[in-house]
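Researcher: Good morning. I'm working through a list of sequences from a screen, and I'd like to move beyond sequence-only analysis. For each chain I'm collecting a predicted structure so we can compare shapes side by side. This is the next one on the list. No need for commentary yet; just the structure.
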Amino acid sequence: MNVMTPKFGMGASVLRKEDNAFITGKGRYTDDITLPGMLHGYVLRSPVANARFKVVSTGEAKKAPGVRLVLTGKDIAHLGDLQSHGMQKQPDGTLPPNRDIPILCRDKVHHVGDAVAFIVAESRAQAQDAAELVEVDYDSEGAVADTRHALDKDAPLVWPELGSNKVVLNHIGDKEKTAAAFKKAASVTRIEFVNNRLITNYMEVRSAVGEWRADEDRYVLTAGTQGVHGVRDIIAKEALKVPPEKLRVVTPDVGGGFGTKTFAYREYVLVLEAAKRLGAPVKWTADRGEHFLSDTQGRDNFVIAEMAMDKDGHFLALRVNLIANLGAYTSQYGPFIPYLGVTMSTGVYDLPAIDVDVTCVYTNTVPVDAYRGAGRPEAAFLLEKLVDECARDLGLPREEIRRRNFIKQFPYKTQTGRMYDTGDLNGHMTQAMERAGWASFDKRLAQAKKNGRIRGIGMSTYIEACAFPGSEPAFVELNGDGTVTLKIGTQSNGQGHATAYAQFVAEKLNLDIDKITVRQGDTDELGAGGGTGGSRSIPLGGVSAARAGEDLAEKIKKIAADELEASAGDIELSDGTARIAGTDRVIDFAAIAKAAKNPDDLKGMGEFKQDECTYPNGTHICEVEIDPETGVTKVVAYTIVDDFGATVNPILLAGQIHGGIVQGIAQALTENTVYADDGQLLTASFMDYTMPRADDFPFFSFETHNVPSTTNALGIKGAGEAGTIGATPAALNAVTDALYREYGIRHIDMPTTPGRVWNAIREATKTK
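Model: Good morning. Structure tokens for this chain:
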């Protein structure tokens, strides 16, 4: 009898297991949780960006209806601050001091939204009403919000005792070698631009439930995170100052993360502290306005970049001066993110020399940290915008200057020490150009002009680093009913882990994925885990899950062989049973579980350790039409050809790429975080912060041009952030192409809003 071919394994287009619960309203998010006797917390936040303050009185607030507790900074002096773990050494070897995040501010606030007090009442409405009764005197001082001007001599200082708004200076490259290359260059192209700040507007705002379980002598935190173990360790060790085993962290369903839910936040500590004091569970849930003022934000760089070239357009050297805004505090990984980005400064190009300075600065704004791509989108945008400008300066086709400078031979070690293992750069660019109709663009341009529109086409050829060195062990167990449970220390926040991980295990056990349950998000079930971020879950966790499945399969075969009086080598697994090959002698998984003499015989474990990153790469091509009378830009076509090494599930992959593209295009065209000079957030709601909509986009054309990774055991390179990394420069380059063709406009900052485009056109036509 033939063994059934696995239909759920790697490469199969399996529909997401988790979606039935979500679309029928059975998802369970943190704010869905209601516990007996639960109280509700509200954070009183600073209305000013930079001020010394004094809490004059909390008496009226404490007497307000339903109020059970009011906490200020002096009430929680025993709690530690949330520390940054991302500071990098400067070229002189020094490690600058952090400015960590206090759970509640003590005598000074540093940005609008900084936490001043925490009020707990029987309802959120009562807590919010009582917050208005807390008397606070603010002695407001000058503020700085603009990245470009944070280092000006007359700029107000966020932390006066430091004497400067500079946080840290990082450098990568060889200054002397780069200077020599610039000296002999036939031409030099220079650009400067703002990489605009973004707010991570995931669908589910943050929420947390804190409990103190006296009978267990420990805290329990339920919160939407990107990894329970990292949050547990930081809150326990740094804030609560207790051993990690004294804190259990549980994460239920999570409605989006994008890096921002990786971090430990002050509200998580506050609900735990309040729960212990009051002997009752305490829930805090943000509203969307609080999200704008409290959750870490992304990007926010000011960049000057130059490329030195020979007479044929070959790149000789790259010089970059980047100022990165970290906001008012050094967030968990904040100082590391710009540094991580510039390690990808050379992109897909054979660049012999680089000289990159990164200066991180403080401003009176919400802290900045990892946001989908974490530095790599910024690096790709810089390079791809610069390469297009190089092509214009030299009169070369944009694809030709790329071809001349692509890395031709792999493996390839970059000037930043990255080791790219595989790729076919010209291959995916050529494929993308064919799919996008690059050669026939002029016909579409002519038609657009007849319709009173201008049209542009832009590309980006990107590479990114992900699945950073490390491991993510996976544990599987055969249950008594014949089903299988996988436990792993990552955390799904929309990616489809329950499906993808189940596919790896199903392939090894030849089992329907509906019989495989994936469990994540509970520190009681696993002692350690790396969480989800940096596109690591599938390249690392997926391989471990496959190996755990193999381990369990061998154990199942051994038990089955004993029961069927056969050799384990003669046993084949099929649809929840074990069979002696070529016979009708069979035993199902439930009977195998019952027959096991030792519980460990029903458990499998797998761990894949990776020593180097993987390097997804690809080409994005965006085509836009602009109405010159209104400045409105419409994306009319979008083509992607990516190299992800190997595809686990085409449907899940397409979902990841589509979502990333939308976020990337939104940065280029619509999203922008704007602060006033006094530090007030002007784009503090969806009334002013423009989110992308489904009808803003065409159908995407997506294909792969995979070259398996030699770093990863299954050839996987990772895909979670790639869409965002390729999309922003492709979209901006398309807009710039349209404006340059018609008006000679060579630069426009993101986002290219209708007003900004309209003004650029008016200015250009004035001078003609």
